[in-house]
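Teaching note: in complex prediction, the entire set of molecules is handled at once rather than each chain in isolation. The prompt given to students was simply: 'Predict the structure of this complex.' The entities are:
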Amino acid sequence: MKLCITATGPDLDSVTDLSFGRAPWLLIVDTDSLNVEAVENSSAAARQGAGIAATQLIVDHGAEALLTGRVGPKARAALDAAGVRIYEGLAREPVREALQRFKEERFSGVRAEKTASTAVGDSRCRGRGMGRRQGMGQGQCMRRGG
Amino acid sequence: MREIVILSGKGGVGKSSLTAALGSLLGRRHTLVFADTDVDAPNLHLVLGAVPVESHQVSVSEKAFVEPDRCIGCGLCMGVCRFGAIVGESRPVIARYSCEGCGACAIVCPEEAIDIRQVVNGRVDIMRVGDHRMVSGSLGIGESSSGRLVDVVKRMAREQAGEINADLILTDGPPGIGCPVIATLKGAEQVIVVTEPTPSALSDLGRVVEVTRGFHLPLGVVLNRADISAEGRVQLIHFLHEQRLELLAEIPYDPELPRALARGELAVITRPDADSSRAIRQLARRMETPGPDRGHTGQVLQFL
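The expected output is the structure of the full assembly:
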């Protein structure tokens, strides 16, 4: 399977990045052969729409699943629409170790940690949150193996 | 007992606020001594609401003094002063703020009319913050030897830590990379550098990282106001990746934070559910985990 891991550098020894749309590197890892394709996230510094652009980018590179810290509501919708399976709860660690834990299925069924931006309607100035998005059935996809 | 120093390079990125926030969290289970070595503009005590206990005058600077009765007005001293600190026509007058106390004038004076004496150049205050202590240094206006004053602050902080059997000395350092920063780094075990995603903060971060590396100290970076610039954040992450530096925490910008500070509150206490408070709490938890912390970059960090 082709898994996208969000990273701060272009190889398996790099440290993970916990954001999806804002991660400088998107590593497309073949979980069987361990081949890595490092995709520079051209939209990491974009003012808006970074999550959606990153979704497009990883889909173009054939990613079937995404392993990251947490996914925002817009990116989640885009990933769902593209049928990319989402694994959240990535920690800051070398990509290699995250991949190892992934292969041990330590991320399977992991739900997103309840974080303030989704748990609290603290959107007065930032216009960031769409509010509560828990319980949307993450990990379910509309089509598989696509 | 551990010694953790918080620096930033650039001023105003949240050094004292983070020190206070971390201190208030770590102080729940540990006994702390806070040290403020920003002797040019000490203010951690205000953020913490520290209560003064005692104050000491510190004389770790030297200056030349002329004994007028013995001076014969030969002018040799004026000739050797490299700082232009000796003025006057027939009789030497020491310009106090220019004198570095190097003693060249005293050496050349044939009449031994010049004395090099220690002068008061600052103050060290001992304070109380609940069951914790705080040691804060203030350099006298126009005075020199800020580094030596920092040495005194650190020595007294260690004495206080011994008295109350503290687990940790948490030092709020000065901005920049000058004397007081270097003195602050002496004897530290772990450095946390606070930065923000702006070009100036990133530039200053590079300089303070280089200085800290010179001391071979483990170093971790906290990105404050992490979400104010996506571009700045990407640049910072590239820098951290190249330098193999640990990103300890990303604290999102929260306009309530300065408001809380203005009221003399710590948001991490009064607004525990804020994103920023969560990020700081996560860092404090990591720091409290016993034993050496093998960072994700492979370097071993020395927290509690």
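Point out the following to students. Chain A touches chain B at residues 8-9, 14-18, 22, 24, 44-47, 50, 92-94, 97, 115-117, 119-120, 122, 125-126, 128 (CB under 8 Å). Confidence is low (pLDDT under 50) at residues 109-146 of chain A.
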